[in-house]
Amino acid sequence: MASSTRGPRVVRVSQKGQATIPKRLREKFGIEAPGEVFVYEEAGRIVVEPVPSLDDLHGIHAGEHERGEVMERVRELRDEERRREDTRAERFRPSEDA
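^ that's the sequence the OP posted. Answer follows.
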């Protein structure tokens, strides 16, 4: 996929692990602020993708999937991310033995 962005850009990561997606990229990919994105690892890279809105999902692949299947997959991905975040947060909680 050809890109009209100007190459890699360094963004700061806060103490809370937050990074700001540059405005140019948010606009190009339709990422609302505040909003949600999918974040996952693929082939050794961190990937950030917009979460499609319900309007975007309406009617896609009609006939190829059971009704609600796409939204169920979106929910599964969100749940997986929440579980990973909970697991990560659990590792950083002080132990009661300390």
